[in-house]
Amino acid sequence: MPDLIRDLETLADGARLSIGAALDERTLEELRVRYLGKKGEISLALKGMGQLAAEERPKVGEVANRVRDEVGSLLDRARERIQSARLEEELRGPPIDVTLPGRRLLPRGHRHPVTRASEEIVSIFSRLGYEVATGPEIELDWFNFEALNIPKDHPARDMQDTFYVDEGTLGAPAAEGSVLLRTHTSPIQIRAMRRAGAPPVRVVAPGRVYRSDYDQTHSPMFHQVEGICVGPHVTFADLKGTLAAFARAFFGPATRTRFRPSYFPFVEPGAEADVSCSLCGGSGKREKARCGTCKGTGWLEVLGSGMVHPKVIENVGFDPRKVTGFAFGMGVERMAMLKYGIGDLRLFYENDLRFLEQF
After folding, report:
1. pTM of this prediction?
2. Over the stretch 235-260, which tens digit does the pLDDT of each residue have?
3. How many domains, the chain?
């Protein structure tokens, strides 16, 4: 018998004794490294195989494999033995009363300010009779742009604004054009109207959206709540009354609203909605100085709105000669910043407990 085979047999005898005497998993792990590791005793023993005659190497290799397998099996059985013994010890121990109240080790958490603002916005519109709708965050170009009357040459199509998705990563080609991360929750409105099949439709659509922006007032991922109301005889007066009621519920009963003309491809006419500054009461001054929040104007821009464009109504299969509608959309982070007096949007996502514990 070559010396190397005798060394491997001696090594196996030692492993049997050491593993059999092990009492915990930490010791087993140390033994596994000692015998089976890259620099373990079996590997060190086999370094001498290069000096053996060619006819002796298969015999030594066979013994080495047998010893390695045996040590592995011994370790597995020893681990099962130790785990079974630990379980048996726990079962023999004193019973645990699972009905006892838990001990409060950490302060109780609470909802993130963005979540709180989003839930409050949705709750207000729910009380106004709006249903909550959801949709996919990875969206098709048709729902995100085409159906909303946004032509191919619109600036929102530029790559620096929109995150486009390589269709090859989806496993199958898209049926209706380019794939992208939705840039607003407006596609949910399109899907809701198509799903309804016929007016009236009144939904509010909260969710995450994505744009290629990051600074003090922009984030590549942010949250929106958009809403739409479509049916016979819906007017701009209905839009103004709805948003005025929302503003009073969200910012306070003394809140006033105003509308300024603006352009959005999916509404005509379009308007920006402002609310009176809650910090200065709409006066533009705080403690005889200019209000920094509203920059002395007394007004804060909060959302975009307007009457749904007839082309959008046609795109979902409704007749624009019989129905009209209004739509609106707001950024949840901006609403939270105005409500709670936060100056930098990035604070929402830095996970700083000193900031989050204030809410």
Report:
1. 0.66
2. 999 999 999 999 999 999 999 999 99
3. 2
